[in-house]
Specification:
heterodimer; A: alpha/beta; two-stranded antiparallel ribbon; B: alpha+beta; 4-stranded antiparallel β-sheet; 2 helices; about 30% strand
Chain lengths: ~350, ~90
């Protein structure tokens, strides 16, 4: 039951086993049917979208590639529609430090998406980037509300503000990109994937800005924003989930998956699993993580290879298909992806389809 | 991940989610609630839990007198905002 089973064995045979086989045979057949369905879907979607994606002009002068930012002041109110502008595009530095950090961070994030992925803002159609700072009263959070990236100043005990860490700004903007592409449902595993994608690209924005290779990067999310009530180095570690601070409960593999009803089903907890898978891929490939590992993840998003309720297993299969499409069935990249999802326990070795099966 | 049952004279609040994903808790003596806040909390118990409102928003869980309900941050009654502001540095 390994290798190219998806191509050789007719699906109806798997269905028969699924209905009438032993418990073990049934589980294996159901796994295979699930992978096979994903592969057929991905093949069709990759074929449909490979053309236009490849032909997208890079750096076309004019409308594309020009960022437009506006930073608003919430004045410590819970107002997501604040109208006081602290800094608009092209204006000199504001007197407000948070506004300048948000302005610069959104610029760095825009530049990453445009220069690395040829994506023109959140919607790939020059959408203005709207930030809002000083939200709420000692508000310990930052979020994307569908229109704006909103940043609190922090309580001063848990957090000292959210604009100081570039990966936080990249994280929030990426929630917008996810919403405009695969729109992962914010609950359970699909929600954890939504969170993980934001951590992945948040970290890549920072690595690109600093010129760090995969082995030079810290792979930490939320560095430099912890207050005196938090003991640790950051909020999350993609490299070693569960080690960022005292009380970090992120699992590093499926054996430690956390079942909880808090946080919409642990979306910020179980994101540790796909986070680590991405780190392992980037680390195995080596060099700049945004060039190939990031490209593979982005291909899954933009080819819309997965549905909004996508689970870890389907997403993993989609990244494997994307790696095979972009770099070849027997490439180092495809192997790195397969190995990573195997290490974190999302795909068992017996479930891994061959890369050839994914591209033919 | 479930907190102990709060005493009868307490409102237990759990705040999960947010960018940080920290699950924090606080207990508030019912006697310390301001006029209107108790009624607003009672109203939360009357409504069923709403679906997730958006990425990185907080989710609040109220527990009182054996009842429990989740309130997404953007569905929080305005009358409870001052209570949450008072608790800004009390979460543990």
């Amino acid at each position: 039951m390994r290798g190219c089973k998806c191509r050789i064995v007719p699906p109806n045979l798997f269905e028969r086993i699924a209905r009438h086989g032993s418990q073990e045979e049934r589980e294996a057949a159901l796994d295979t049917l699930s992978v096979d369905h994903s592969i057929r879907l991905i093949r069709a979607q990759n074929a449909a979208l490979a053309g236009p994606m490849a032909q997208r002009p890079v750096g076309t002068p004019g409308r594309h590639g020009v960022v437009h930012r506006t930073i608003y002041d919430a004045k410590h109110r819970n107002d997501e529609h604040a109208t006081t502008v602290l800094r608009d595009e092209g204006q000199p530095e504001s007197h407000d430090r948070s506004a300048n950090q948000a302005y610069d961070g959104l610029g760095d994030t825009y530049r990453f998406y445009w220069e690395v992925l040829t994506r023109d803002s959140i919607d790939d159609a020059s959408m203005s980037l709207l930030g809002e700072v000083h939200f709420g009263h000692r508000y310990d959070n930052a979020f994307w509300d569908g229109e704006r990236m909103i940043f609190g100043d922090g309580s001063g005990t848990l957090f000292t503000g959210f604009t100081a860490a570039l990966e936080v700004i990249g994280h929030e903007l990426t929630h917008g990109v996810t919403e405009k592409t695969i729109n992962l449902r914010y609950s359970g595993q699909s929600g954890a994937l939504n969170e993980s994608i934001s951590d992945v690209f948040g970290c890549l924005v920072k690595q690109y800005k600093l010129g760090q290779t995969a082995d030079q990067a810290t792979w930490l999310v939320g560095e430099g924003i912890l207050g005196p009530g938090m003991h640790g180095v950051a909020l999350r570690s993609m490299k070693a989930p569960g080690t960022a601070f005292d009380g970090d409960t992120q699992p590093a593999d499926m054996a430690h998956y956390v079942n909880t009803t808090s946080d919409n089903g642990g979306v910020h907890t179980n994101s540790g699993i796909p986070n680590r898978a991405f780190y392992l891929v980037a680390s195995a490939i080596g060099g700049n993580a945004w060039e190939r590992a990031g490209r593979i993840w982005y291909q899954v998003m933009t080819s819309r290879a997965v549905q909004p309720d996508c689970q870890f297993h389907t997403f993993a299969t989609a990244t494997l298909a994307a790696a095979a499409t972009l770099y070849g069935a027997t490439s180092t990249e495809a192997k790195a992806v397969a190995d990573a999802w195997g290490t974190v326990g999302v795909l068992r070795a017996s479930q891994l389809p061959t890369a050839t099966a994914l591209t033919t | 991940m479930t907190a102990a049952v709060p005493p009868d004279d307490q409102l237990a609040i759990e705040r999960s989610g947010g960018f940080a994903g920290l699950t924090m808790r606080v207990s508030v003596p019912l006697a310390e609630l301001r006029p209107g806040e108790r009624a607003a909390i009672e109203e939360c118990f009357e409504h069923s839990t709403s679906p997730p409102s958006g990425p990185d928003r907080f989710v609040y869980r109220f527990r009182m007198h054996g009842r429990e309900t989740d309130v997404q941050e953007d569905r929080m009654p305005q009358a409870l905002q001052p209570l949450l502001d008072r608790l800004a540095t009390s979460w543990h």
